[in-house]
Amino acid sequence: MSLWEIIMLICFGAAWPFSIHKSYTSKSTKGKSLTFLIILILGYLAGIFHKIFYNYDFIIFLYITNMIMVIIDTLLFIKNSKISKTQ
Questions:
Q1: pTM for the full model?
Q2: Which of 8, 31, 36, 38 has its CA 20 to 30 A from that of 45?
């Protein structure tokens, strides 16, 4: 367990609710990138797998929480891109 890893995940995690809120309220994909969101999901998956196979500790829950928030933002991106296409 690393204090720096915990701080990094908390800081990243603190930003996602704002991003999700912006995606939900704006109904726009402006300023978002599906590729970037997918890369983030893959990065969090890599962190989760590392915790499972090499260094299991409670920090895995921070990785999972952050990944869930990125998945939510990704789903909103997809929904908002469909809305943009119909307008």
A1: 0.91
A2: 31
